[in-house]
Predict the structure.
Amino acid sequence: MHESMKSGMTAFEHGTLWAVLVCGVIGILYALYLRRQVLAADKGTDEMQRIAGQIQEGAYAYLTRQFKTILSLVGILFVALVASGWSAGIDIALGRGIAFFLGCFCSAFTGYMGMTLAVQANVRCAHASRTSLAEGMVIAFRSGGVAGMFTVTMGLVGATVIFMLFYERATEVLLGFGFGGCLLALFMRVGGGIYTKAADVGADLVGKVEAGIPEDDPRNAAVIADQVGDNVGDCAGMAADIFESYEVTLVASMILALAHGAVTGNPRDAIIWIMFPLMVRGIGVLTSILGIHIVRMKNDDEYPLDAISKGFIWSAAVSGVFFFFIARYYANDSRLFWATLFGIIMAVAMYKLTEYYTSGKYKPVQEIARAAQTGPATTILTGFAEGLESSVYSLLVIAGCIFGSILVFGAEANAVEILYGVSLTGLGMLTTTGVIISMDTYGPISDNAQGISEMAGIEDNSANVETLDAVGNTTKAATKGIAIASAVIAAVSLFGSFQSKLAGGGEEVSLAALQKFPIQIDQPTVFIGLLIGGAMPFLFSSMTIRAVSRAAFLIINEVRRQFHEIPGLMEGKEGVLPESGKVVDICTASAIRELIAPALLAILSPAIVACWLGWPGLGGFLGGIIVSGMLLAVLMCNAGGGWDNGKKMIEDGLYGGKGSEAHKAGVVGDTVGDPFKDTAGPALNPLIKVMNLVGLLIAPVIVAGSHGLNSRLPGAGLVVVGIVLAAIVVVALIMSKKTTKDIAEVQQKLEAASGE
Amino acid sequence: MHESMKSGMTAFEHGTLWAVLVCGVIGILYALYLRRQVLAADKGTDEMQRIAGQIQEGAYAYLTRQFKTILSLVGILFVALVASGWSAGIDIALGRGIAFFLGCFCSAFTGYMGMTLAVQANVRCAHASRTSLAEGMVIAFRSGGVAGMFTVTMGLVGATVIFMLFYERATEVLLGFGFGGCLLALFMRVGGGIYTKAADVGADLVGKVEAGIPEDDPRNAAVIADQVGDNVGDCAGMAADIFESYEVTLVASMILALAHGAVTGNPRDAIIWIMFPLMVRGIGVLTSILGIHIVRMKNDDEYPLDAISKGFIWSAAVSGVFFFFIARYYANDSRLFWATLFGIIMAVAMYKLTEYYTSGKYKPVQEIARAAQTGPATTILTGFAEGLESSVYSLLVIAGCIFGSILVFGAEANAVEILYGVSLTGLGMLTTTGVIISMDTYGPISDNAQGISEMAGIEDNSANVETLDAVGNTTKAATKGIAIASAVIAAVSLFGSFQSKLAGGGEEVSLAALQKFPIQIDQPTVFIGLLIGGAMPFLFSSMTIRAVSRAAFLIINEVRRQFHEIPGLMEGKEGVLPESGKVVDICTASAIRELIAPALLAILSPAIVACWLGWPGLGGFLGGIIVSGMLLAVLMCNAGGGWDNGKKMIEDGLYGGKGSEAHKAGVVGDTVGDPFKDTAGPALNPLIKVMNLVGLLIAPVIVAGSHGLNSRLPGAGLVVVGIVLAAIVVVALIMSKKTTKDIAEVQQKLEAASGE
């Protein structure tokens, strides 16, 4: 059995696997080349380097501490994963555990590499902008390219090697790899998101509490933390998140390919459907290099966004051509091409849709700015209504992806085929991942470049860095839309392979076996699962938004303490610097403490539901998370983006410009939007993927632990496990509440002090 | 066949049907008695009567115009309903159409009676409060009792008569009755919600635009409209909404009872399970009378809320005792008692939960007030996070209802039994409807009483009316929670009977037939349906929130025009009154125009989805609406309630009291919360019910129009119908956008004028 798939593969296919690996290696070499090129650029003045050094230090400190904290959890989960794979044999069990470690490592390494280069590139970008806009842009974009290339290559190399070791049993091991990636992404997104917005909100509010301190004043100890936050949140979090989507769509497509082969009874069907995604990914690496490499501006008069868009479009177009050829001449099935192409189109649709709702060029943001004239309340209401609307259209794009797959495969196709088509759509959507991550990482680098220039008192590049920063805001917002869409498609693919896992994994699946595990929402347990699953994103968002508020209060307190206790700081005496490191420490500690409860919720809740309601309940639960998670994520990201750019329009002179009443209202909208768009919203992406992946991992256990198929409910042993896990989550929630109490005490002191 | 159920019933059962009718008649007589008692009270001073007269006039004008507008739609739907029942025979088809008319009439009449008495009771309550708190309270509460009694009796009498005419085919006709109720409730909730908040927000913002005008100044032409809004939104909307839940849980329980009888093969099973809900309702009428009648204060030192709570608790407890006896000695099945009792407990749980999240006595609202110290942004974020959290716990209550039914009926019970249990839980929850509606309607009456006293310059009752008003805010918020929960339970029951309808309606259902129609979310079409269904509440809320903003802008414009054009108004010259009628007209016209697009969306979207994705897609769609509709409704209602009471806490002197920075932040939260809690949130209740009811009505048509059972997708004819319906919705949406453009023009003029 173990040899069957390997021996069933043609020499061409074996050769192709090696070729895919070579593509991966080329990608890594290209990333190293970009890195060297960026680091060779000039680092600017001493003051710029000093500030950049502080940001680097803070960012390293945060990541190091985060990795250390989660190491013990990774250890526990390693054991759990080995145990979960035990029934499949010791090689699979250990393989899954090791792959899990590797997945964690790849995701962490991708984030780490992207971020460490970003914090070195920011100052170089700032310096290069002093001579030329084009040079500054290329440095920022190519630094992003390093993160992008690591994202696309690490996942591909890992998955290909695992496949070459295990063949038809590879999916069992790949689940471990994918879960490792997901877990790290969850931590990076949640921790990074809390960090970045706690620092941002804290720094902003200090300006209000301490009258007379402007927002980015160097006397403010929270300003460095704010810059660090941009890197840990936007760079590291985003790269890890997309890495994960990239990985799990591949795993899901392989599981569905195996199920397809089992259903048709022809092992060649499975092989072709597994090889096709690997080839798509290999091509994606090469076209990502193309896309990143051609992004350059002919001269300083070209608008940077046009150059970036060109790279994106070329990368997508060339990929499409290649996909056509492999689908037509290798797989001999042009349906695969159409499904993948559909994904590319959907990526563009999501990009445009997000741009429409978050760019000042279009009506929604203009409406928000207009509403700011009648105060903060109408600003909030208008932005919220726009966000609600945008979530509907984004969801229609996802529904369109699934419906497109139905059209391509025909209404008579079975669910396995259609869901395989959906996973191909996901693969197509992420084809240009290299370019997408570059565009995204470009954002915080150019943002930092502007910040460093301002703090170091450099003025000759201000027009250039402002242009770069404005472009960065657009690319950041638009790639967020793609990240959400790809997360949802990845989760749908995982959900689609859930039933195959229930039916006993890849090899033994038949249509009859699949039909033994219907997830019928007309069954009460499934419906309960659906309801509870739907509630999870709401609970998770509530927790992350509060976490930001709590951490922000601590920061305000610390900044105020420094003003009180450091002589000469408030007066701006020459040479007196705030203790920025302390604020960075508080941010780090808070972010890491605050991510524990949401992370436990994400990992344990599927297991609890499964122990309580059996596999039908778990199935409903996973479906519910996708629906409400998608809607809430888009709502929060787009409303936040809209408020942000609405405020910017006013700052650019509309309705009275800076300092007007409309501006004040715009700032309120922006502050509300900050944790929406940078903490709670993006953190929902890994949440829906992690929960669906946990569901896949525990599916066989739950089925084995149930009283046969008739009852559909789990046995006493599992119920006990469920109660224990539920107790852990409840304790975590209570501890998280306890933190609130501590904060309340701090705050009371703060109030008492301000009353003095 | 037609005679089988009738002949299978015992003489006791036939007698009981008459007894239930007699209960209904007693309830109506009691309502008329209460009405007479209230109207006999003194109407107060001339000035009070003049103001009350304006409110009455506005309220009548609104309701009359609304009823006229929807008459044509009712006509069209009458034809559609007759057509939808055609295959079941002409008597059923016509019966369904006529029952639809009756349902519309009963719902409208309930709302109308409640509201007309409320606008006459407000002034009487204000006058009675001048001598005694206890008397004022009794007038307000008993006026609410009239609406409450009409709600419980109209539905029961209608359903019982229909059952006595059609027996086992009654559910086909009752669907028409329920749909009529739902439709009117949707209009009342949406139209009333837009009206009340447009007037409220408009009146508030005028204070800001025209500096120096306090919020409730009699010179402000929008103040009367604001008072009218309280009545049309809170009284009429709420009564119609609960009437609808009350009705559809009964219909759903009957459909499930028929399915149960068909499954067991014993017609007696169906009869007992139909009789039990009717008896429960009959008992509910009597205990509602008891609950309303015992609400009185011994003296002015008693707190009004205690007296009201006593009525609620007694009514619930006595009902429980009766339910035990009929379950034990008539149905001989104590499971029915437990399921119903569970509903009573859940009503109390929802009440307490909502109170926890919206009352200043508990932490969530205190946190909101505390957050107001750091400005509007933190106020909004805290309230939003609390709202998110509350939606999770409320959803757990609903999941608990379903799980409770599983526990009661046993894990081995089939879905029909468990869902019947859920519908009994809904019946139990609404047992105390009479008291619940009294509590709710009491709110706007006491609110109006305070408003009228202030405007008429009456000061000797101010302490009393303020106490009454504060209690009203609590009861209003808490009953909202029960309204949502009962709407969701009603929708779940409807959804549970959806499959029975797919399988061919009551008589021919067997377990095998049911299993031909699995709603499997692992099927792509079902999943698409689930996603789109989940998006509907988001789209609907976006539309209603915008509608409020648009209408509010028109009102501001009109009030400003009056200040400019009526000589002496701004200066407060003796005898110069604003033209309040014009603002009332604008409110009425806007509310009615703005409700058309959301209403069309609600009615047509299930049909469009069914035509596009067949019955499986429709099934997913209905499930998706329930999940996201519930979460969003609770989020918006509780966040809104929290902001409202957070602001009140500050107004009562916390953190600097009225006029402080914290108060300003609280006002922003309250203004954001207004359309959340009074327009978008409550309007989701009828939305989820209407959509599920439309699903039930079209289920047989879709099944008949599909290419047999294998394809599960609809035929070409239905696709054409779907495209036509989709075109109608798109046109409605575009028209609604067009309105935005008109408003934008008005606003530009407004801006130009203010620039002069």
Notes: The radius of gyration of chain A is 25 Å. Chain A has a mean pLDDT of 85. Chain A touches chain B through 85 residues (CB under 8 Å). The longest helix of chain A spans residues 596-651.
